[in-house]
Design the sequence.
């Protein structure tokens, strides 16, 4: 592995980690779950009991759920 | 949801029916192989652990035994990290083996209840960061700073030993027990394990404790921002920045969280730099130089509005910013301490540890050290987090040790670094900053006279030291900036300027630190008010059913107003307290937090007893006993103590008698109004102490009762959810062990169509 490739790999890991901790991968996880659970492709067509939410709908739904179910932050 | 039915055919109560290899590959390591790996001591392993033990031992000797002029900060870091590693490797493994007994054949809620949203299996390393960001806030940064008045050693020992034997144990057990119960909350577990009385007492205690904690965190921010146009500007700017971020994510680019967090971070830095410019203008001096009462009212109004606004607009973006800042700043401080290695000239144990007359917090080492430092050593509040979001995201059972126990060790390390930062500044400056205005008069001359009158060896404060430091950090004055946050900010700027920028950058680093603490605290205030509002609505709903509907606007607003009024009243009381505020109220914060810990540990004890694990009950009984003794004795001293500096009612009596005798000034209260305020405040504080201690005693007694009953009945009853067969595999710790690597490689090599996906719905 060249130095450049190593740096690139490291940067990708840092980005992956940061995105994970901030929760940016939530939509991707939701889509994967939906596909697995409902036997649909990623576009959401198929036998889904709940139609797949679009990215915009998903994030709205996420903050709306937080509105109804608040979580404390520690001191 | 019918989660179980779609995942397995064999839902059963008996774990023996669980399969280790349900389909193609194993979902759990072979227990014998696992045990063999743990027992196998290769020469390399022996060498590594010997080195860790030797370095840890040497560090403790340097801290506790060797008495030089100064001690280097690096020994704090080494003593902490080596002790954590040993505690993690040996003590948490012991707890895992004998009490927790995780079973990777069992599916976690994230697997069997998977919905892709609240219940979603998350990579263990990501979840560790997530959990850490949720538990670590301003608490571990403030408590150790205040406790530094007793010398460096008591606080260091309590933080390090306390976390290994108490704090991390609590977090680990609550996380695991909640996970085994589908992510149930602490309140629900208390009702299940302790019955109606214990459960109700735990619920009321949680609500009251939440109010106190929010109030005192708000007091810390108020004290940091008072008379500081720079701080008011830069912290105030976080509101429009968060609103902008919220709108960006809602309407412009949904889900681009990292991107907007970086933009937000750049704007924050601009706000800090801009604050320096604004503070120098007439405009800044006229409109932003605010006194404590004005700022307190500002925070109260802000708290109400923030808590009724939708989450996406303010809370969520602020959360992203605060996570971003938290990880960045703590990492930066760690690097700086290791590179700079400041020398610390504070005595190991100061005279205030035994005399109890310290100006920062009144009271002797026992019990007040243990309530002043709560977060970082043992924090009951974590039980609310560990029974909230985190248990719903865990991928495999064996990961709870890394996330629960390990996450708390990380917070403890933050507390150690805060302690080091506070210890690294001149001791005279430390006392001038942390003595209440009632003692220093709020002036440089007053502070110099007061600090030098303490007769501390090696302390010789001059007026120029205080004015020079104030100029360096870009403040009018640093006298009587109580609450811990400004002291930590001075310490952090003192360390950081040696690494980046020199003296001219100190003001930037100071306001950077203030900003990052204020960010955590304002998020905690907002979120705490919301949680408290829901708890209140739930309780009110028993009498007025309409309140149960949390989307009913008038009800939501009324409940929010009640909660804000409750913490706002305590905040205003602290701000206007003629006795100082922080020194009278901070012990209540610590007591409240530790009582919550006692409640959480009491629930753990009842659960462990019901599972029939009496031989190992001491693992829970030890920290529970300690937390109970500390908090109950601290409460009793606060309630019955005869010394006016410590006992609330003694203070109350002294001031009432002075008023009755017609005196117009008494102690640090210069007027009749001030004396009346003291009488009022001490009564409120005393009553709150009584409420706390009574509720906690009820909870602990019901837990003991449940434990004894379990012992008599030889009970093996469990309130766990039914075991569900797991279909997935993931390693347990941060680094994979050799057997884990082998199994992981097999999973990685599995053809895609054979990989079992988590199902749910």
Sequence:
């Amino acid at each position: 592995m060249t130095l450049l490739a190593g740096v690139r790999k490291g940067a990708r890991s840092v980005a992956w980690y940061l995105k994970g901790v901030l929760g940016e991968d939530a939509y991707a996880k939701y889509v994967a779950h939906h596909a697995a659970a409902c036997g649909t492709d990623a576009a959401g067509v198929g036998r889904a009991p709940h139609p797949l939410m679009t990215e915009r709908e998903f994030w709205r739904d996420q903050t709306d759920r937080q509105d109804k179910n608040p979580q404390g932050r520690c001191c | 949801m019918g989660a179980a039915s779609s995942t397995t055919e064999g839902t059963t109560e008996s774990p023996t029916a669980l399969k280790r290899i349900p389909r193609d590959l194993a979902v759990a390591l072979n227990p014998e192989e696992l045990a063999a790996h743990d027992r196998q001591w290769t020469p390399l392993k022996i060498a590594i652990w010997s080195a860790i033990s030797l370095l840890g031992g040497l560090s403790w000797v340097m801290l506790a035994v060797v008495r030089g002029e100064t001690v280097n900060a690096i020994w704090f870091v080494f003593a902490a990290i080596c002790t954590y590693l040993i505690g993690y490797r040996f003590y948490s493994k012991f707890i895992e083996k004998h009490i927790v007994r995780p079973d990777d054949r069992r599916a976690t809620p994230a697997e069997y209840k998977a919905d892709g949203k609240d219940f979603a299996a998350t990579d263990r390393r990501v979840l560790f960061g997530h959990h850490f960001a949720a538990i670590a806030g301003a608490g571990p940064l403030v408590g150790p700073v205040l406790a530094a008045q007793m010398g460096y050693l008591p606080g260091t020992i309590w933080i390090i030993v306390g976390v290994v034997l108490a704090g991390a144990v609590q977090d680990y057990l609550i996380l695991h027990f909640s996970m085994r119960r589908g992510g149930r909350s602490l309140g629900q577990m208390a009702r299940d394990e302790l019955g109606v009385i214990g459960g109700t007492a735990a619920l009321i205690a949680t609500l009251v404790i939440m109010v106190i904690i929010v109030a005192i965190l708000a007091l810390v921010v108020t004290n940091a921002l008072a008379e500081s146009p720079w701080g008011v500007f830069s912290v105030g700017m976080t509101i429009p920045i968060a609103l902008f971020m919220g709108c960006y994510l809602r309407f412009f680019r949904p889900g681009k969280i990292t991107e907007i967090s970086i933009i937000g971070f750049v704007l924050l830095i601009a706000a800090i730099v801009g604050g320096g410019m604004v503070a120098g203008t007439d405009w800044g001096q006229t409109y932003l130089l605010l006194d404590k009462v004005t700022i307190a009212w500002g925070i109260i109004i802000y708290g109400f509005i923030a808590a009724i606004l939708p989450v996406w607009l303010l809370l969520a973006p602020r959360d992203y910013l605060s996570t971003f800042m938290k990880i960045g700043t703590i990492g930066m401080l760690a690097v700086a301490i290791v590179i700079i290695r400041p020398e610390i000239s504070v005595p190991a144990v100061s005279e205030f540890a035994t005399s109890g007359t310290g100006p920062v917090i009144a009271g002797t080492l026992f019990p007040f050290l243990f309530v002043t430092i709560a977060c970082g050593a043992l924090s009951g509040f974590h039980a609310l987090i560990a029974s909230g979001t985190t248990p719903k995201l865990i991928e495999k059972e064996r990961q709870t040790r890394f996330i629960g126990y390990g996450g708390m060790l990380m917070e403890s390390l933050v507390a150690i670094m805060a302690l080091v930062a506070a210890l690294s500044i001149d001791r005279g400056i430390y006392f001038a900053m942390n003595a209440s205005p009632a003692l220093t008069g709020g002036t440089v001359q007053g502070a110099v006279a007061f600090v030098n009158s303490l007769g501390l060896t090696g302390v010789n404060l001059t007026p120029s030291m205080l004015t020079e430091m104030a100029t360096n950090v870009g403040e009018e004055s640093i006298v009587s900036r109580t609450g811990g946050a400004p002291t930590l900010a001075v310490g952090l700027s003192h360390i950081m300027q040696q690494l980046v920028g020199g003296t001219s950058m100190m003001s930037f680093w100071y306001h950077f630190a203030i900003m990052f603490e204020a960010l955590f605290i304002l998020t905690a205030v907002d979120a705490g008010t919301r949680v408290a509002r829901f708890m209140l609505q739930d309780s009110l709903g028993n009498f007025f059913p309409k309140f149960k509907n949390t989307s009913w606007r008038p009800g939501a607003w009324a409940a929010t107003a009640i909660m804000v009024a409750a913490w706002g009243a305590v905040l205003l009381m602290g701000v206007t307290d003629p006795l100082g505020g922080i020194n009278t109220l901070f012990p209540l914060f610590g007591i409240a937090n530790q009582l919550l810990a006692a409640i959480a540990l009491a629930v753990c004890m009842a659960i462990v007893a019901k599972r029939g694990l009496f031989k190992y009950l001491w693992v829970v009984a030890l920290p529970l006993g300690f937390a109970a003794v500390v908090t109950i004795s601290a409460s009793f001293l606060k309630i019955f103590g005869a010394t006016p500096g410590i006992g609330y009612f003694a203070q109350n009596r002294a001031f009432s008698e002075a008023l009755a005798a017609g005196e117009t000034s008494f102690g640090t209260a210069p007027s009749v109004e001030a004396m009346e305020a003291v009488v009022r405040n001490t009564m409120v504080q005393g009553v709150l102490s009584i409420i706390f201690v009574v509720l906690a005693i009820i909870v602990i007694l019901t837990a003991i009762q449940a434990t004894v009953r379990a012992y008599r009945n030889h009970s093996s009853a469990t309130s766990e959810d039914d075991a569900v067969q797991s279909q997935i595999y993931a390693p347990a710790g941060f680094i994979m062990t050799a057997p884990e690597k082998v199994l992981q490689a097999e999973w990685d090599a599995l053809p895609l169509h054979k990989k079992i996906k988590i199902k749910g719905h």
The CA atoms of residues 8 and 19 of chain A lie 16 Å apart. Chain A has a mean pLDDT of 84. Chain A touches chain B at residues 15, 17-24, 26-27, 29-38, 49-50, 55-56, 58-75 (CB under 8 Å).
